[in-house]
Amino acid sequence: MQLTRPTTAPESDSARRKSLLRSRALWAAVLGWLAANALVVAVAGDRLPFTWASSTGQKTADHLLEANVGLVEVLLLIALVGLLTRRRPRPDLAARTPERAQALRETLLLLAYGAAGLAFGYVLARSLGWHPFGFHLAGTLYGTHEHVTPTEAVTWALYNVIVYALVPLLYFRRRYTAEQLCLRSADRRADTVLVAVVLVVESVVQFLVLEPETLELGGRRLLVGLPLTFTLYLAGAVLPAMIFIYAILLPRVLKLTGSTAATVVAGGLAYAAFHLWDAWTRFGSLEDTLLSGAFLLLTYFAPGMMKAVLTLRTGNAWVHVWAYHALAPHTLADTPHVVHIFRV
């Protein structure tokens, strides 16, 4: 497939801001976020029905506050990315995709395949007596009162990397180049600087806000636990999200919508959707289902948008992997969990 012009025409900052403020997708996202907050207030009592081991005793208001503070942090990070990349040419990801009709077919194929992957991951895991397979290993982020076995953890990682990364990559790599799939950097130096700055800022926030227990593990556990956590989550969470959502799906959404704002919102929604089977979600009643949906949005929508912004702004899906996923938060925050699973 012949590539078209790699960068978009120059556009002033003022014009971009006006275009952003006129975006229906942006205002729909704002209203959706407010609606999720209102839903939690209306449906939940003082306590949420989720078994969150890391936040036992917290009230509903505390969780809502954390979610909204997290959104503010992501918006500040997005502003930082804009500042750091203000002089970089804007890559035209839509030009890396096929014509519109083919892009639509591929998008629908991806969505159907992703839904089938989630469905089969649920059936497979439950048939083995495990937590359903989504983009997070059971116990990630909120913890779990149930022990996750090493076999479950390894199978989860293998399933996700094969279904959401390896198979889609093999299929699309036969038809498109690495550049068209956003797997090659157009400016390695600028990407490296961006990764370093975002990673440092996010790591500092993680230490100050979440106070991860990783550094309290001791030398031997850190020596084994850090690379083990990095490898496990790289396979089970990071590469699946990078390949499926940000390298393949995101440029096609941009082609179909013609809107950067709509594409960023879609990236956030897709990222939240692939965490549907998080171990804490509950679907036994209408109230539990509504609250699970609301907190999936409140937890994952903003990080999904951040990953989308990094990819759209650099044209390189690897940037978000190193700046805002593989190392912080996963390796930094989840090493104690992995150490516990493998009894290091």
Automatic annotation (TrEMBL):
Keywords: Membrane, Transmembrane, Transmembrane helix. The keyword DNA-binding does not apply. This is Uncharacterized protein. It comes from the Bacteria. The chain crosses the membrane at residues 25-45, 65-86, 107-125, 153-172, 193-210, 230-249, 256-277, 289-310.
